[in-house]
From TrEMBL:
Its main location: membrane. It is found in: Cell membrane. Residues 6-257 form the ABC transporter domain. It holds the Pfam family ABC_tran. This is ABC transporter ATP-binding protein.
């Protein structure tokens, strides 16, 4: 049985706002095994991003407080590490692609200099070595003509290419875990599929575990082995993708599943009337027998139907 890589236990993150206390994350348990892919799914505001940011210790506001819980990564609680230790871990052992980061590349600097700066900051390598690593990781994410891309400005790249740059940056330290927060949002459907396929490929070839934060069950069905469904800061259901998709235990999960974009239909499947499509649209990309549960079966943790 594969080893647990990330074990989040009873995580609580609160914001002290002028309007009162917001319990953005309210007792979340998650587990990802080495090389696994966990989908963290839920509607906007359910607490997915805050969960990812808390794991990475990147909440970035004094109004946020981790009110409880543990984030065990390879057995060490990230919440108790010093800032320096966490900084060393970021980029080298855990990489992250942020939500909305497509606009995060600075238009006034060449892609290469931004990549080199990030790589040097995380890995403390020379400029020449950082350049080599930047090229290597652009190659890894299937970027055509990587040398030229390093000399380009972000506006000269397509949305999909910019996302590949960001994924390349996150992977340059060869992390064991990649936290990808809505990495396909704002991309058109074809490019979304390419990015999802790239992440599947990275997981298979490098064995990088992925925490895939998404509101999209289609993405979960295509790439994840296990899934946790969040609502109002809590995990209402979690289990193997196969179990959750074929037999959701929570009405909220069912409602999310109904809003699945048509990401991964074959031509044959597309020819079937929409009303009869639901099951195979949601079929997991990973066959059930290959999907190892990293979470205890199916459980309704906090709320009933
Ligand atoms: N800096 C902040 N200050 C106060 N409240 C915040 C802050 N960041 C997030 N929140 C609140 O925490 C809750 C969870 O937000 P979060 O961004 O994690 O949701 P999400 O599920 O990722 O949604 P989305 O997909 O829209 O990003 C929301 O109610 C949000 O308003």
């Amino acid at each position: 049985m594969a080893q647990t890589l990330l074990d989040v236990q009873g995580l609580q993150t609160h914001f002290h706002t002028d309007g009162g206390l917001v319990k953005a994350v309210d007792g979340v348990d998650l587990k990802i095994e080495a090389g696994g892919i966990l989908g963290l799914v839920g509607e906007s505001g359910s607490g997915k991003s805050v969960t990812g940011l808390t794991i990475m210790r990147l909440l970035g506001t004094k109004r946020a407080r981790v009110a409880g819980g543990r984030v065990l990564f390879k057995g060490r609680d990230l919440l108790t590490l010093s800032d320096r230790e966490v900084q060393a871990l970021r980029g080298s052992e855990i990489g992250m692609v942020f939500q909305g980061a497509l606009t995060g590349l600075d238009p006034s600097f060449r892609v290469g200099s931004q990549m080199i700066e990030v790589i040097r900051r995380h890995q403390g390598v020379s400029k020449i070595e950082a350049h080599r690593l930047a090229l290597e990781s652009l190659d890894l994410v299937g970027m055509p003509d990587p040398e030229r891309k390093l000399r380009s400005y972000s506006h000269e790249l397509s949305g999909g290419q910019r996302q590949r740059v960001l994924i390349a940056m996150a992977l340059s330290g060869k992390p064991d875990l990649l936290i990808a927060d809505e990495p396909t949002t704002a991309l058109d459907a074809t490019v979304q599929k390419q990015i999802v396929d790239l992440l599947i490929d990275i997981n298979r070839t490098l064995g990088t575990a992925i925490l895939m934060v998404t509101h999209d069950f289609g993405v979960v069905a295509r790439m994840c082995r296990t899934v946790a469904v969040m609502r109002h800061g809590r995990v209402v259901e979690q289990g193997t993708v196969n179990d959750v998709l074929t037999n959701p235990q929570h009405v909220y999960t069912e409602s999310l599943m109904k809003a699945v974009p048509r990401l991964h239909l074959t031509d044959e499947e597309r020819s079937v009337p929409r009303s009869e499509r639901r099951l195979f649209e949601l079929r997991p990309a990973v066959p059930p027998e290959a999907a190892t549960a990293t979470t205890p079966g199916k459980e309704t943790v906090h709320a009933g139907k």
